[in-house]
Amino acid sequence: METCGRIRISDPNPRWVMETMPLARVRGDMVLLPNGNILIINGASSGTAGWDLGRNPVLTPLIYRPNNPIGLRFEAQNLSSIPRMYHSTMILLRDGRILVSGSNPHAYYNFTGVDFPTALTMETFSPDYLDRRLVRVHPVIVSPASHYQIGYGQQLVINFKAQGRINRGLITVTIVAPPFTTHSFSMNQRLLVLTNSTGISASVTSLGGSNYQVRVMTPGSNTLAPPGYTFYLWFIEKFLVKAFGSRSSREKGFNYICN
């Protein structure tokens, strides 16, 4: 499959817009990134999406930038060395990396004598917003601390540090519900851009030095941000660079974790 489609279901007359991907792919996984882009990863370029019926692993991830003009939305990333076929998975981490793991196109664990052995390895993929050359300009969230709870339709105040001159109009706050990904389907996935009470943008105030405060409103209902066994990660964007509670110095691409 080398085409993908997108649709804005809130339009009066929704229509599919079809695009051609740089690489054909089956069994692929997709995850929403904090900056609104989409990572497409894992899978094979031929065969079908089931068990050991896939061939020719696709080792090159793609970034899809939905706000770019058609023809400029896909960008190939650094490749992995590990085939991620059937039963592979991934999840967005708190620091903005993506944990990639798994691959088992067999009924049981099978490590020898097959084209694609069971993979128990894990890797992290670092998007370009974690490029080590951008570490100095990453905003760093100071407060609230982790596991902070807040209700619907309430003002959320975030204090953060940012080095150098910033354009307050470019500051964006997003919240992400990380998905549970299996069988090329990312369940419970959601990304929301938060604005101030006027619904226009985030309100940013300088606190002196490199300290800033941003005020936004939380989603107004559980239709937008479902409750239950769901947690949300929040991020601050500055000059298209993401801010996290902990910073990463890795360049974009893969980093091997464990076996």
UniProtKB/TrEMBL annotation:
Residues 2-129 form the Glyoxal oxidase N-terminal domain. Residues 139-231 form the Galactose oxidase-like Early set domain. Keywords: Signal. SUPFAM superfamilies: E set domains (SSF81296), Galactose oxidase, central domain (SSF50965). InterPro entries: Gal_Oxase/kelch_b-propeller (IPR011043), Gal_Oxidase_central_sf (IPR037293), Glyoxal_oxidase_N (IPR009880), GO-like_E_set (IPR015202), Ig-like_fold (IPR013783), Ig_E-set (IPR014756). It holds the Pfam family GO-like_E_set. This is Aldehyde oxidase GLOX1.
